[in-house]
Amino acid sequence: MYYMALVTTEWVHQNINNPKVRIVEVDYDPNTAYNVWHVPGAVLITWKELRHPVRRDFIEPEDFERLMSEKGISNDHTVVLYGDFNNWFAAYAFWLFEAYGHEDIRLMDGGRTAWAKEGRPTTQEVPRYPKTQYKVRRVDWGSRRAYLWEVMNKVVHGEIKKSVLLIDVRSPAEYKGEITAPPEYPNEQTQVGGHIPGAVNIPWGQAVDPNTGKFKPPEELKRLYESAGITPDKEVITYCRIGERAAHTWFVLKHILKYPAVRVYDGSWAEWGNLVGAPVEK
What GO MF annotations does this protein's record show (predicted)? Predict the structure, then answer.
């Protein structure tokens, strides 16, 4: 079963030439992804284009408007995101698009992995679309983003596992503090390893079928999270290292399982693991 926010590769295939749809690939490194091949008609957004040029944050609304306009994306487009790393950065972008009020945003189930395994058409041709006049109509981080001070308050005041559930979606080795960065980012380590006190470890990949890259069926996802005590009656906060894997799990809980209160702590371990005096568990 598919939901409004999640579309199949077949749906995307059928809408490649639909002028009302803008397909966007979001990559960590386009040299190993988009530049090798991409969905016909897809434009490229790298995750760094979504980042603020000076401070650790997202680009400002006016810069988001400029980026969308340059990519040929209008407010009225149905934007379909997909990408590498099983849609890590596509989910991260989805989260930002939502916060900046884009009305019709979708994620292609399975990303590049599913598209390739199904033998669907690819190209190296870079499309050129007319520039638009994109406008950010609202900015709404409140229900989507958790900040360091909020998470710290909840830890210090004993709210974790009671009214608030904290999910560390990194690998078990990162969670245990055996390594301080995932293999994909060996040079981006923190000062200490471990996890935020009270956080449960449910690696992001447990929500994905490794053979297809697609999300597991909703009933399996429901069992996965509820068996770990992650229930929809509590506030849920996800985190990883910089927020992209956490956004992937946020998408599962928010848009597939329809949990009402899910946020991403995108400061994640890159912030917490470098903070002097922060409580850490191993």
Answer: thiosulfate-cyanide sulfurtransferase activity
- The residues, any chain, with a CB within 8 Å of residue 251's CB and separated by 6 or more, are 5, 91, 94, 95, 107
Q: Which domain holds residue 226?
A: 148-272
Identity at 254, one-letter amino acid code: K
Q: Evaluate whether 199 touches 168 at the Cβ level (below 8 Å).
A: yes
Are 262 and 111 in contact by the 8 Å Cβ rule? The answer is no
Q: Is residue 98 annotated as a catalytic residue, yes or no?
A: no
Neighbours of 164 (CB within 10 A): 22
Domain count, the chain: 2
Q: What is the pLDDT of residues 215-241, one digit of tens each?
A: 999 999 999 999 999 999 999 999 999
Secondary structure (3-state) at 245: helix
Q: Strands across the sheet with 235-239, in order?
A: 200-201, 164-168, 235-239, 262-264
What per-residue confidence (pLDDT) applies to 1?
Answer: 37
Catalytic residue among 42, 196, 240, 256: 240
- Rounded mean pLDDT, 117-136: 98
Which tens digit of pLDDT belongs to each residue from 190-212? 899 999 999 999 999 999 999 99
Tell me what pLDDT residue 186 has.
67
Residue 51: strand pairing partners: 58
Query: Across residues 39-66, what is the average pLDDT?
Result: 97
Supply the DSSP symbol for 59: P
